[in-house]
Fold this sequence. Notes:
This protein is an alpha+beta fold. It has helices spanning about 50-55, 100-110, 130-140, 150-155, 155-170, 170-175; strands at about 10-15, 25-35, 35-40, 45-50, 65, 70-80, 90-95, 95-100, 120-130, 140-145.
Amino acid sequence: MVRxxxxxxxxxxxxxxxxxPNFKRAAVLLCEHSAEGSIxxxxxxxxxxxxxxxxxxxxxFDSEVFFGGPVQTDTIHYIHSVGDLLEESVKLTDGVYWGGxxxxxKFLISSQLILPQDIRFFLGYSGWSEGQLADEIVYGSWVLxxxxxxxxxxxxPDQLWQQAMYNKGNAYTVIAxxxxxxxxx
Length: 185
């Protein structure tokens, strides 16, 4: 069996029995992973509010905000597909970038050079201290998967966990079919 490497741009899929309500059936894009710790964003937990409702001087923009994780929930972060337009962006994988110049972002949105389907905003982030994520993976809390841009920009958030688990293949296709409330069966 080939063991996948945890790296920037990896996708973490919560195992189906995870009890932590922050991460139940979560799909997390790992943006920074090093010996000092890791940072990522939960891709499939929409908050039901728009970014222009959250930030006072933000241009009108019909883009929903997602719960990125339980750390620093007073901060805004973003993942996008326009790294060639936005300076200071960090490439995570093909077609997926993290961050960039915020003032330039607002200008590009006002100029309609960035559209809602090009970007996803997050309130807070998911964080792990030194060695914590590696321990959680060994323990079986997370399934490591390949990240695809479609997971962020095309997939329905309510189906992303199942889709990513199914795409892993083998036994994961069976896990993907498990009902969320398995105890009710």
